[in-house]
Specification:
The complex is a heteropentamer. Chain A contains eleven helices and no strands. By secondary structure, chain A is an all-alpha fold. Chain A folds into two domains: 11-104, Alpha-helical ferredoxin (Fumarate Reductase Iron-sulfur Protein, Chain B, domain 2, Orthogonal Bundle), CATH 1.10.1060.10; 111-188, no CATH class. By secondary structure, chain D is of the alpha/beta class. Chain D folds into two domains: 2-118, Up-down Bundle (Glutathione S-transferase Yfyf (Class Pi), Chain A, domain 2), CATH 1.20.1050.140; 136-287, 3-Layer(aba) Sandwich (Rossmann fold), CATH 3.40.50. In chain D, helix 1 (16-29) links the parallel strand 1 (2-5) and strand 2. Chain E has two domains: 2-134, no CATH class; 149-272, no CATH class. Chain E has helices at residues 2-17, 80-91, 118-121, 149-155, 159-172, 178-182, 207-222, 230-234, 241-256; strands at 21-29, 36-41, 50-51, 73-78, 100-104, 111-112, 115-116, 133-134. In chain E, strands 1, 2, 3, 4, 5 and 8 form a six-stranded mixed β-sheet that branches. The relative contact order of chain E is 0.12. The chains are: A mainly alpha, B alpha/beta, C alpha/beta, D alpha/beta, E alpha/beta. Chains in contact: A-B, A-D, B-C, B-D, B-E, C-E. At the A-D interface, helix 6, helix 7, helix 8, helix 9 and helix 11 of A face helix 2, helix 3 and helix 5 of D.
Chain lengths: 189, 659, 147, 293, 283
C-alpha cells in the first residue's frame, strides 16, 4: 500500500471527529478547501500544517494526524480565519477543539505552549489572579528557557510592571472551586 | 333519464386473454342508466370507432363508458370521435382495464370481477358528467420582450424575423446591456461591440420591432394570448421624434459626470448618449445631475439645439398595449463587492477594480482607448492579480452559487494583459477552474502557456504598501502562504439578478428562487417556459450564464413564442374550476392554494336581509386556471368545483362499488 | 356485528392517484407486466391536491377497508405546489383519523413518480398485506352500523 | 457617568501605564469607574484553550459579581482579551448553558450586564464632547496608526462589531487630540501577543509586518487600547529591529495616554515615562505645539 | 368587575350617543343570578342594562356578522375570545375591521355552575389581542395552561378505546348544529351539510352520520379554531367537542409550527400555506 489507506481507517475515527467538530459548532462538509483561512492566518508560517490542511485531515478521517499537529497549539485564536471564511466554518473553534482533545489525551506536540498554559493557570488557582513572576518562574524552570526575558526584568520591576507579590482574591476558594468544577465537567462530556 | 353506452375493448388479446369481456358487457348491461353494452375488438381502430358511432345513433346514447387501455392513451382519440357525433366529447369516461387490470392480474375470475367494478365506477362518474365545451381565445400576435441586452435583442430579432410584431422595453436609454460593454468575447476573442452593435442597429431599424428605451413595465394583467401590459416611459427631456442625434447638445453641456457605461472610469455629460453606438442614437438628460433640472441654471443644451428638441418639462407617461406572449430577459448586475469585502479594501484602493471595469480599460473605445492603465495614476501595470469567485461560492459574504462565466473571462483578462503589456506578470487566484464549453479548456490551456500563473487558493486580504497592492493567499497545492505584490488587482465579481427583476417578473406571475433568479417551469424539459403560460424567460435573468448560452436560450424562447403566435386561437381546456357564487363566503382559501394565481376576489351584488349589498366572492380566470383542483379540495362549502372532476362525480365513484 | 373469518378476507382498497405521477406509474407497472393484488381500485384525479379529505371519510363509510392517497414527490408536482398542500392536509387528517379510532394502516399516503412502477407495485403489495392482516373495517362503516 | 470596572490582571502589572492614564482621563472628564470587588482573572487564552467550561466560568464569576454589587451599570473592561472573554461569558449567560454555568460558579447569573470597552465608553457622544473640552494641547505632528488588534473585532458574532476590517472609533478619538490618523492595513491583524512567553520568536514576523505597514503609510507612532498588544508592540520593537536589520522607531501609546497628554498630563502622571521603546521624545516635540486657546 | 361594568356602560352610552355605532353588543341580566345573556343595545339610554360579571359566558363576536353589511359600525364588548374571533372573521373574509368598534376587556375567566368555566381554564389570551380602546388594566395571562392534557389522555388509549369513546359521544348527538352555529370559525355562508345535491353526507341523525359530521367539522375548523370553547359549552348533549378541536390545534402546532389562530387579522391558516421543509412521513 502506498500512502494513507483511507479504506482501512477505524470506524471510531469518524465518530470521534464528528463529536469533536460538533463541539466546535461546525460542519466539515462546509469546507471546500479554498485556503482563505490559511492565507490570512498570521501564525501560519510557524505551523507544521496549514489550518486548511488540519481540516482536510479531519475530512479524510485522519484524526491522529490532526491531533498531533502543532498548528492548533500555535493558533493565536485571533479569529481571522473564521471571520473571513466563505462558508462560515468556525475554523478557530475547530482548532481549539482539537487542542483541547489532544490535551486531554496527553498529546502535546508543542511542549512550551502547553507549559505556558499550565503555569498561567497556576497562580489563578493559588491567588485567583494572574501573577507574571510566578508564571515566568515556573515556565522558565520547566521549559529550559531559564533566562528568557531576563534582560527586561530590572526595568519592569522598577516601573512596577512586574510585582514581586501577587495580588490575591479574597475568596480564593471560590475561584479554585470553579476551576475544579470545570475540570470535572469537561471530563464528563 | 341518462342513456349510457358501455363498450368493452378486447385490445386483441391484451385484455380479452385475461378478462372475460363478454361477461363484463353482460354485467354492464344490467347496470342502472345503461341502455347498451357491447364488446369491441379494437375500440381505438377506425372500425371500432365506427361501431361505437353507429351504436350512438341506434340507441340514442348520450354518454359513454369505454373500458379499454389507460385514458392517458386514447381518451383524446375517443373525445375526437365523439366530436363527430351527437354526444358531447366530455360525456365520456374511460375505464382502465388494460394497464391497471389485465396486464397486472393473472386470475381471470378476479380480473373480470375487478373490470366490472372499474366499469361500474366509471359509469357512476359518467352519469354525473355534464357537457363541457372548449372555448378558444384569440391570440394577439404580438410579443413583449422585457430587457434589451443580448438576450432580449436576439429574441426580438428572431420573433420579428418570423413575421410577428415585437415591442422591446429597455430601462436604460440604449439597447446593449452588458455585452456591449465588453471588449472581447471568449474563447474566440472577437470584438464584442463588433458583433453586438450590428444586432442593435438591426433592432432599431426593424419594421416589426418597436423599441421603447428608458421604459419600464409597470403592470401586467390578462393571460396567455392576451396580456394587457402597461409600460412606463421615463422622462428623457429630449423629443426623440424630432432629434437627429447631431450631438451638439452633448458637446456643449458643461456638466461632467462619471460614466456608468465606463464603470466610473470615464466621463460623460449630463445630457448624454450611453455610448457612441447607442440605439436609439439620441441623447437623454440625466435629471439627477442636470443643473437646469436641479437648480434651474444653465439650459445650454436647449439653446444650442437646432431643432428645439429639449423639453425640460418632460413627464413620465404610460401606455397600455396587448401582447400574446411575454419574454423576460431582465439580465444581471454585478455585486457591489466593496460592501461585501472590507478585507479587499472595500473599494478604498483605486487600483482594485472589477472585471467589468477591466473590460472598459482594455476596450479600444473605452476611457483609455484600450491601453491598460491604473486608475490611480494612469501608469501601465507590470503585474496584475486576478481574483476569482469574488461574491460567488461565498455564502457567508454574498452568494453561494457559481457565476459560471468568471473562470473564462478571468483567463481572457490574463491573456489580454499579457498580450498588451510586454513582460507583464499575471497571477490568477482560483478555487476551481471550470471550463465546460466548446473550446473553453483549450483557451485555459493557452492562457497558462501565455505565462499566467494560476494559484489555487482564495485571497484573504488585499492592501496597499509602498505603491504596490499586496495580495495574501495560500497556494493550497503546496500548502504554503504566498504573497504577490502587484500594480493592479482585478476582481472577477459575481453576477446577481438585475435590480427589480424579481418585481418585474412577479407582475407577470413568475417567481424567483432564493437568490432572485427567475424560475423556469422545468429545469430540464421546459427551460424557457415559466409557470405562467405565455411568459418565457431567457438569458441571465434565469441564472448566471455566458453569451453563447444566453443567445441559445434567447432563440429557444423565441421559437416557443413563434409557436404560440402562429396560432390564431388557443383552445382552452374546459376542465377548469368554476365558482358557485351563491354559496361562496369569500374566505380566500382557494386563492391561497391556487398555484397559478387564477383566482381573485370580486364584489358581486347580493341581497341580505332584504337589502342590496356587495358581497365578496371568488372568481376563476379561465385563461390562467390549469385545472389542478387544489381550490375545490380546499373549499369547505364546496362552492368551487373542478369541472370534469366535480365533488359529486368523485363521491359517486367512491360510492359506486357499494350500491 | 358479525365476526368475519379473515383467512378468506379480500380487502377492498381505494387509491386516489394523480394523473401525472402515480397514475402514470401504475400504467407503467402494467406496461412492464408487473403483478400485484387485485384489491386496489384507482380513482384518477388531476393532482393529489384535488383530494378532499372528506373523500377518505366517505370511502370508509361506504365500506372500503383501506384508502391510499398518492401523488408526485414534493417538488415534482405538475402544478408546482399541489402536493405540498396535500402533504399538510393529510398529515393532519391522518392524525385525526387515528384519533377517531381508525387503525393507522387503513389510511396511507405515498409519493410515487411516473417512473416508479416498482414502487407502485410494492406499495400495493404492502398495503394490501397490512390491511388483510387487520381484517375488514367495521369502523365508521355504513353497512355495519345500519345492520 | 458611572461604570462598574473590571481592570483585569494586566492593569496592576504590565499595563500599569494604562491604569494611570485611564485614571487621569476619567478624572478629567468626570467618569466614575467603580471596581468590582474581589474580581478574579478571566483565564485569558490559557483558560479557554484548556476547556470551554473554564473559558466561560472564570469570566462569568465576575459578571455575576457585577450583577450583585453594581446592578444596572455597564461593565468597563479595558483589556481586549478580558473584553472578549467577558463577551463570551455574557453570550453563554444568554444561552441554554446558563444553568450549567450558574452551577459551575455556584452563583446566580442573569447576563444583565452590558460589556463595554474603553473605546465604546469614550465614543459615547456626551463623553466625547467632554474629552474634547478637556483637551488643552494639539498633538498635531503625531501621525498615528491606530492598532485595534484582534479581539475588539473578532469574532463579530461575539463582539457585535460592524466594521471588523477597518474600524474607525479609535481613530476618531485620537483625532480629537489634533493628531492625524493614517489609513493603514494592519489595524486588526494579530500581533501574536498570546505567544509572548512560550514562542516569542514566532511573533516577530507579525510585529515586523505591522511596523512595516504603519511606517509605509506614514505613521510615526502607534496607539492601542490593549495591554497585551501594548506589551508586545512596545517591548519587542528592539528585538524586531535586530532580527530584521531594521530601524523602526514607532513609539507605542495607549489611547488613554495620548488623551491624557493632550489634556496636559505629565509623562509621569500618565505613564509614558516607563515605556520600553522611548516614547517621550516624540511627545516632547509636541510640547512645542501651541496651547489651545 | 363592577368597575368594568361601569366603564362599559359609560362607553357604550357615549358611543351610541355620539352616533359612532348603531348598536352595542354586550351582556345583559337574565332572571337567574348566575346567568347572563347576550344583549343588543340600540339606544344610548339602554346602556345601563348592560352587565359585566363572572357569568358572561357567551362569546359574542359572531353576532357582528348580522351587521356586516350595515352602513354603521357595531360596538362589541371584546375579551380575548371575542378578539380572536373577530380576527378570525376578518381573516376569513367575513367581516371588515372598520365595521366594528371594539371595547377591550381584560378578562379574569368566567364561572359556570359555580366553578371556573371549562372554556376559560385553558385560555391563553385573557386580554384582547385587538381592540379600539381597553377598559381597565391588562390582566396576567395564565402560564401554559395544560390545554392538551385531555387530548394526550385519549391519544394514549388504544384504537378501539378511542373509537368506542367517540361513537358513544356521537351517539348522543341530535344534529341540532348548535356547535356550528355558535362557532366563529364555522362562518361559511352555507354549510356543506346543507348541500343535499352534492351529497357530502346524509342528514340522518345516527351515530355514523353524526360522527362523520363531527370529524368533518373538526377538520374544517382545525387549523382555524380559536379555542373559545363555545361549541362544547353550547352542546345540549354534552359532547366533549373541544377534545377533538384541541387535538387538531395541537397537531397543527406540532406539525407546522403554527401556534394559535386568531392572533392577527391577516394570518394565513396552516392549510392555506405550506413549507417545503414540512415533515415528510409519506415518502
Amino acid at each position: 500500500m502506498v500512502g494513507k489507506n483511507l479504506s482501512l481507517l477505524p470506524d471510531e475515527n469518524k465518530q470521534k471527529i464528528e463529536s469533536l467538530v460538533k463541539k466546535a459548532g461546525a460542519k466539515l462538509s462546509d469546507c471546500y478547501q479554498c485556503g482563505k483561512c490559511s492565507a490570512g492566518c498570521p501564525m501560519a508560517e510557524s505551523m507544521d500544517l496549514m489550518p486548511r490542511q488540519v481540516l482536510r485531515y479531519l475530512q479524510l478521517g485522519l484524526l491522529q494526524e490532526a491531533l498531533s499537529s502543532q498548528a492548533p497549539w500555535i493558533c493565536a485564536t485571533c479569529q481571522t480565519c473564521s471571520a473571513r471564511c466563505p462558508h462560515d466554518v468556525p475554523i478557530a473553534e475547530i482548532m481549539e477543539a482539537i487542542r483541547r482533545q489532544a490535551d486531554q489525551m496527553g498529546i502535546r506536540p508543542l511542549r512550551r505552549t502547553y507549559l505556558f498554559s499550565k503555569y498561567f493557570l497556576l497562580p489563578l488557582k493559588l491567588f485567583g489572579r494572574n501573577h507574571e513572576l510566578t508564571l515566568t518562574m515556573f515556565y522558565n524552570l520547566t521549559s529550559g528557557k531559564l533566562f528568557q526575558h531576563f534582560t527586561y526584568l530590572p526595568a519592569m520591576l522598577k516601573s512596577r510592571k512586574l510585582k514581586i507579590w501577587p495580588a490575591k482574591v479574597k475568596n480564593r476558594l471560590a475561584v479554585r472551586k470553579i476551576m475544579e468544577n470545570c475540570e470535572k465537567e469537561a471530563q464528563n462530556i | 333519464m341518462a342513456r349510457a353506452g358501455v363498450f368493452i375493448c378486447h385490445c386483441g388479446s391484451n385484455i380479452a386473454s385475461v378478462i372475460d369481456v363478454e361477461q363484463v358487457a353482460k354485467s354492464a348491461e344490467q347496470m342502472t342508466g345503461v341502455v347498451y353494452a357491447a364488446t369491441n375488438k379494437y375500440a381505438c381502430s377506425i372500425s371500432g370507432q365506427e361501431m361505437m358511432k353507429q351504436a350512438i345513433i341506434d340507441h340514442q346514447l348520450d354518454r359513454l363508458v369505454i373500458a379499454s387501455c389507460t385514458p392517458r392513451m386514447h381518451e383524446t382519440t375517443f373525445r375526437k370521435m365523439l366530436g363527430k357525433t351527437s354526444v358531447n366529447p366530455y360525456m365520456l369516461e374511460v375505464a382502465n382495464i388494460r394497464e391497471q387490470c389485465s396486464w397486472v392480474h393473472t386470475d381471470k375470475e378476479k380480473a373480470t370481477a375487478k373490470a366490472i367494478d372499474l366499469v361500474r365506477m366509471s359509469l357512476a362518474k359518467v352519469l354525473k358528467n355534464q357537457p363541457l365545451f372548449t372555448s378558444s381565445i384569440p391570440v394577439c400576435k404580438k410579443c413583449l420582450v422585457i430587457g434589451g441586452g443580448i438576450a432580449g435583442i436576439q429574441a426580438a430579432l428572431d420573433i420579428a424575423d418570423g413575421g410577428y410584431e415585437v415591442t422591446l422595453v429597455e430601462r436604460e436609454p440604449s439597447l446593449g446591456g452588458k455585452m456591449v460593454m465588453l471588449d472581447k468575447t471568449f474563447p474566440t476573442l472577437d470584438c464584442s461591440a463588433c458583433i453586438s452593435t450590428p444586432k442593435m442597429a438591426e433592432v432599431g431599424a426593424h419594421p416589426r420591432i418597436k423599441l421603447m428605451s428608458s421604459c419600464e413595465v409597470s403592470a401586467v394583467s390578462g393571460y396567455i394570448g392576451n396580456f394587457e401590459v402597461t409600460i412606463k416611459q421615463n422622462p428623457r427631456y429630449v423629443d426623440h421624434d424630432i432629434c437627429t442625434g447631431c450631438g451638439l447638445c452633448e458637446e456643449k453641456c458643461p456638466t461632467k459626470l462619471k460614466s456608468s457605461f465606463d464603470q466610473g472610469l470615464g466621463q460623460r455629460k449630463a445630457i448624454y448618449k450611453l455610448f457612441p453606438q447607442a440605439v436609439p442614437a439620441k441623447p437623454v438628460i440625466d435629471a439627477q445631475h442636470c443643473t437646469k433640472l436641479t437648480k434651474d441654471k444653465c439650459g445650454v443644451c436647449a439653446k444650442v439645439c437646432p431643432l428645439g428638441c429639449i423639453n425640460f418639462a418632460d413627464q413620465e407617461s404610460y401606455t397600455t398595449d396587448t401582447f400574446g406572449a411575454i419574454i423576460l430577459a431582465t439580465g444581471y448586475q454585478l455585486i457591489d463587492w466593496g460592501s461585501h469585502y472590507p478585507e479587499y479594501g472595500g473599494g478604498a484602493y483605486a487600483d482594485v477594480i472589477s472585471g467589468l471595469q477591466f473590460e472598459r480599460l482594455v476596450n479600444a473605445s473605452g476611457p483609455t482607448e484600450g491601453k491598460i492603465k491604473r486608475p490611480s495614476d494612469g501608469a501601465q501595470p507590470k503585474s496584475v492579480a486576478i481574483i476569482k469567485c469574488v461574491g460567488s461560492r461565498d455564502v457567508a459574504k454574498a452568494h453561494g452559487y457559481c457565476s459560471r462565466a468568471c473562470c473564462m473571462y478571468a483567463a481572457k483578462h490574463a491573456h489580454q494583459t499579457i498580450e498588451k503589456i510586454a513582460g507583464a506578470q499575471v497571477y490568477i487566484f482560483y478555487i476551481d477552474v471550470r471550463t465546460p464549453g466548446k473550446a473553453y479548456e483549450e483557451f485555459y490551456d493557452r492562457t497558462r502557456e501565455d505565462g499566467a500563473v494560476y494559484i489555487r487558493g482564495r485571497v484573504s486580504k488585499i492592501y496597499e504598501e509602498n505603491g504596490k497592492l499586496i495580495c495574501k493567499g495560500e497556494d493550497t497545492l503546496i500548502g504554503k502562504q504566498v504573497t504577490v505584490e502587484v500594480d493592479l488587482v482585478v476582481l472577477e465579481t459575481a453576477m446577481e439578478p438585475a435590480a427589480n427583476s424579481g418585481q418585474t417578473a412577479a407582475l407577470a406571475g413568475v417567481s424567483a428562487d432564493k437568490d432572485g433568479w427567475l424560475t423556469e417551469a422545468h429545469p430540464k424539459l421546459r427551460p424557457v417556459e415559466t409557470q405562467s403560460a405565455g411568459v418565457f424567460l431567457c438569458g441571465t435573468a434565469q441564472g448566471p450564464k455566458d453569451i453563447p448560452d444566453t443567445v441559445a436560450q434567447a432563440s429557444a424562447a423565441a421559437a416557443k413564442v413563434l409557436g404560440l403566435l402562429a396560432k390564431d386561437e388557443l383552445e382552452t381546456s374546459p376542465m377548469i374550476s368554476a365558482v358557485d357564487t351563491s354559496k361562496c363566503s369569500g374566505c380566500r382559501f382557494c386563492e391561497q392554494v391556487c398555484p397559478v394565481k387564477a383566482i381573485s376576489m370580486i364584489d358581486i351584488p347580493s341581497i341580505y336581509n332584504g337589502q342590496k349589498v356587495k358581497r365578496t366572492v371568488a372568481q376563476v380566470n379561465s385563461g390562467l386556471c390549469s385545472g389542478c383542483g387544489a381550490c375545490s379540495a380546499a373549499c369547505r362549502t364546496g362552492c368551487i368545483d373542478l369541472l370534469g372532476f366535480t365533488n359529486k362525480q368523485i363521491l359517486e365513484e367512491v360510492d359506486a362499488l357499494w350500491q | 356485528m358479525a365476526i368475519t373469518d379473515n383467512t378468506n378476507f379480500e380487502p377492498k382498497i381505494l387509491a386516489f392517484c394523480c394523473n401525472w405521477c402515480t397514475y402514470t406509474g401504475a400504467d407503467l407497472a402494467g406496461l412492464n407486466r408487473m403483478k400485484y393484488p387485485d384489491n386496489i381500485r384507482i380513482i384518477r384525479l388531476p393532482c393529489s391536491g384535488r383530494v378532499n379529505p372528506q373523500f377518505i371519510l366517505r370511502a370508509f363509510q361506504k365500506g372500503y377497508d383501506g384508502v391510499l392517497v398518492c401523488g408526485c414527490h414534493p417538488g415534482d408536482c405538475h402544478y408546482t405546489s399541489g402536493n405540498y398542500f396535500t402533504r399538510r392536509r393529510f398529515l393532519l387528517m391522518k392524525r385525526l383519523l387515528e384519533f377517531a379510532g381508525i387503525e393507522r394502516e387503513r389510511f396511507q399516503a405515498r409519493w410515487i413518480s411516473g417512473s416508479e412502477a416498482g414502487k407502485f407495485r410494492d406499495t400495493i403489495l404492502k398495503v394490501t398485506e397490512e390491511i388483510r392482516a387487520l381484517g375488514p373495517n367495521h369502523r365508521m362503516k355504513e353497512a355495519d352500523i345500519y345492520d | 457617568m458611572k461604570y462598574s470596572y473590571f481592570p483585569g490582571c494586566s492593569m496592576e502589572a504590565t499595563g500599569i501605564e494604562y491604569a494611570k492614564s485611564l485614571n487621569y482621563v476619567n478624572r478629567a472628564i468626570g467618569l466614575d469607574f467603580i471596581e468590582i470587588e474581589d474580581w478574579n482573572c478571566c483565564g485569558a487564552t490559557a483558560g479557554h484553550t484548556k476547556s470551554h467550561e473554564l473559558g466561560i466560568a472564570l469570566p462569568l464569576r465576575n459578571l455575576a459579581l457585577a450583577e450583585q454589587q453594581l446592578p444596572g451599570l455597564a461593565m468597563a473592561v479595558p483589556c481586549a482579551s478580558c473584553y472578549s472573554r467577558m463577551k463570551y461569558a455574557l453570550q453563554a449567560a444568554h444561552s441554554e448553558e446558563r444553568e450549567k454555568f450558574s452551577r459551575l460558579i455556584d452563583m446566580p447569573v442573569e447576563g444583565s450586564v452590558e460589556i463595554v470597552s474603553i473605546m465604546d465608553i469614550y465614543s459615547v457622544e456626551k463623553t466625547k464632547t467632554a474629552i474634547s473640552a478637556a483637551i488643552t494641547k494639539r498633538l498635531s505632528n503625531l501621525k498615528i496608526a491606530c492598532y485595534y488588534g484582534c479581539l475588539y473585532s473578532r469574532p463579530p458574532k461575539i463582539t457585535m462589531a460592524h466594521n471588523i476590517e477597518n474600524p474607525q472609533n479609535m481613530d476618531e478619538l485620537v483625532r480629537l487630540t489634533g493628531a492625524t490618523t493614517v489609513d493603514w492595513a494592519y489595524k486588526t491583524e494579530c500581533c501574536g501577543a498570546g505567544h509572548h512567553v512560550d514562542i516569542p520568536q514566532e511573533s516577530k514576523p507579525l510585529l515586523y509586518r505591522i511596523y512595516k505597514n504603519a511606517r509605509a503609510n506614514g505613521a510615526n507612532a502607534l496607539v492601542t487600547a490593549c495591554p497585551m498588544c501594548m506589551l508586545n508592540l512596545d517591548m519587542r520593537q528592539g528585538a524586531v529591529n535586530k532580527a530584521y536589520d531594521e530601524n523602526f522607531d514607532l513609539p507605542v501609546y495607549y489611547l488613554s495616554e495620548i488623551l491624557a497628554i493632550a489634556m496636559g498630563a505629565t509623562f509621569k502622571e500618565c505613564g509614558v515615562a516607563s515605556h520600553f521603546h522611548p516614547a517621550k521624545k516624540l511627545l516632547q516635540k509636541e510640547n512645542e505645539t501651541k496651547e489651545v486657546v | 368587575m363592577t368597575d368594568i361594568q361601569n366603564i362599559l356602560r359609560e362607553r357604550a352610552h357615549a358611543l351610541l350617543d355620539e352616533g359612532k355605532i348603531a348598536c352595542f353588543i354586550g351582556w345583559g341580566a337574565t332572571r337567574f343570578n348566575e346567568r347572563a345573556m347576550p344583549k343588543f343595545i340600540f339606544k344610548a339610554e339602554e346602556s345601563s342594562s348592560l352587565v359585566y360579571n363572572e357569568h358572561c359566558l357567551n362569546t359574542l363576536a359572531k353576532y357582528t356578522l348580522d351587521f356586516q353589511y350595515g352602513a354603521e359600525k357595531v360596538g362589541l364588548a371584546t375579551r380575548g375570545c371575542e378578539a380572536r374571533a373577530i380576527n378570525r372573521l376578518i381573516a376569513d373574509g367575513r367581516l371588515s375591521r372598520d365595521k366594528v368598534y371594539l371595547l377591550g376587556i381584560p378578562c379574569q375567566g368566567m364561572l359556570e355552575h359555580g366553578k371556573p368555566a371549562d372554556k376559560c381554564v385553558f385560555c391563553r389570551h385573557r386580554n384582547p389581542v385587538v381592540y379600539d380602546e381597553l377598559l381597565g388594566e391588562k390582566t396576567i395571562e395564565l402560564q401554559n395552561p395544560p390545554r392538551f392534557e385531555s387530548v394526550l389522555e385519549l391519544e394514549n388509549k388504544s384504537d378501539t378505546e378511542r373509537y368506542d369513546f367517540w361513537q358513544k359521544q356521537f351517539a348522543k348527538c341530535i344534529r341540532c348544529y348548535a356547535c356550528r352555529n355558535v362557532c366563529p370559525a364555522c362562518n361559511c355562508l352555507e354549510c356543506y351539510t346543507e348541500q343535499y345535491r352534492t351529497g357530502w353526507q346524509g342528514k340522518q341523525a345516527n351515530t355514523l352520520e353524526n360522527s362523520v359530521f363531527g370529524f368533518t367539522r373538526a377538520y374544517h375548523i382545525g387549523d382555524r379554531c380559536i379555542e373559545c370553547g363555545e361549541c362544547e359549552r353550547i352542546c345540549p348533549m354534552e359532547i366533549p367537542l373541544m377534545k377533538v378541536n384541541r387535538k387538531l390545534v395541537k397537531d397543527v402546532e406540532e406539525l407546522f409550527g403554527v401556534e394559535e389562530s386568531g392572533l392577527s387579522e391577516d394570518e394565513i391558516h396552516a392549510l392555506g400555506s405550506y413549507n417545503k421543509e414540512d415533515l415528510e412521513e409519506f415518502m
